[in-house]
Each structure stands twice: as structure tokens, then as C-alpha cells.
Amino acid sequence: MLTFGRLFPLVDPMPAAVPSSRPYLLTGLIWLAAAIALGASGRVAELRPPAPQLVLLGLTAALILAGVALPGFRGWLLAIPLRRLVALHVTRFVGAYFLVLYGRGQLPYAFAVPGGWGDILTATLALGLVLLMPNIERARLPVLGWNLLGLADILFVVATAARLAFADPSSMAALLRLPLSLLPTFLVPIIIASHLLILVRLRRRPG
């Protein structure tokens, strides 16, 4: 039976030296710039299901596979402080914008309200962990509980967006225009992958 530990057989040992962040941050900036350029060009807005969903799944899978297959990248990921990984999820206050667009009639209730409040809750709890846990590396149970909640929320958001887009592509058109087009083309793959990375990190003993 394939277990989580067997899927990530090489991620447990702490790397001997912290790899340089420069190449990975530069790659991330290039990725972000490309996502912004594609969104601004209107090409993302022209996509119809299942293309947006395949883009999101493909980017997520590529990011996860890179972390498994590339030793340098994997070592860099394992060296990122847990506090920074949790702090990344403060970006999910973007859920408040879902509520704004629902109020304008640009996003359906079934996506904007549950997904928006779920993201706001996840971001608020992440902020609380970052600010109130002086030794977050040892706060394994609170971080695990938050991580599972956040992962369930983002998977719900992705599944709901896909379901509504297949039923009525125009209802989810706002997600394919800037700034929200950055969600499927940049932020959501990183968010999902970071949840899995945090699970891997929590399997290791602190210190």
C-alpha cells in the first residue's frame, strides 16, 4: 500500500547546508510575471472548461513533483522556517474580495460566500499562529489542525469553482480576469503545495 511516507521517501533528512534561495525566488518571480502578463493579455479570460482547471492542476502537480524529484529544490523547501510557510496563507484574505464581487453580482453565492469566509478564517488563524506562537515549530497539534482545515478549504474552493464553471462558465468569469486570474495560474498551486509541505514538515521531530 502506498503511504504518505513512501511517496516522499527522501524528505525526512535535514539538508546539511541551506541552499541558496536566489534561483528559486527568481524562478517564482518569472512565474508571477508570466501569470500577470497572460492575465493582462486577456488570454486567460478566453479559456473555457476544462482548460482553466487543467492549468491549475498541471501547475500544482509540477510544483509537487519538482519538490519530490529535485534534491536542491527539496532541500530549500525543507529549510524554509515553518513560520514563513504558515504566514504565506495570510494571502488568503483575498477571500474578502470574493464577498465584494458577490455583492456586485459578479460571483455566485455558492462559491463566493462559503469560499470567501473559509479563506478569511484560514488566513485569520494563520495570522494568529504566526503572531501568538513564539515556538511554532513545537506547536504541532495547533499547526496540524489549522493545516488540515486550510487544505480542506482550498480543495473545496477549487472543486466548487470547477463545478460552477462547468455548469455556467460565465458565472466564474471573474476568476479568469486580473487580479483573480493569478489564483489559478499562480497562488492556488503554491497554496496547495505548501499545505503538503507543512504536512511533511510536521512528520519530522522539531529541532
What does this structure look like?
This protein is an all-alpha fold and 207 residues long. The protein has a domain at 85-207. The protein is 68% helix and 0% strand. It has helices at residues 4-7, 22-41, 51-69, 71-79, 82-87, 95-103, 109-132, 140-167, 182-203. It starts with a helix and ends with a helix.
Can you describe this structure in just a few lines?
With 207 residues, the protein is mainly α. It has a domain at 85-207. 68% of the residues lie in helices and 0% in strands.
What is the helix/strand order? Answer: HHHHHHHHH
User: What are the low-pLDDT stretches, counting only 5+ consecutive residues below 50?
Assistant: 1-16
Alpha plus pi helix count: 9
- The shape is globular
Say how many strands there are: 0
Task: Indicate the proportion of strand residues.
Answer: under 5%
- State the helical fraction: 55-70%
Structural class: mainly alpha
What is the end-to-end distance? 30 Å
Rg over CA atoms: 18 Å
Major beta-sheet overview: none
Which features does this protein show?
207 residues; mainly alpha; 9 helices; 0% strand; disordered N terminus
Reconstruct the topology from this structure.
Layout: H1 4-7, H2 22-41, H3 51-69, H4 71-79, H5 82-87, H6 95-103, H7 109-132, H8 140-167, H9 182-203
Helix pairs in contact: 3-4, 3-9, 6-7, 7-8, 8-9
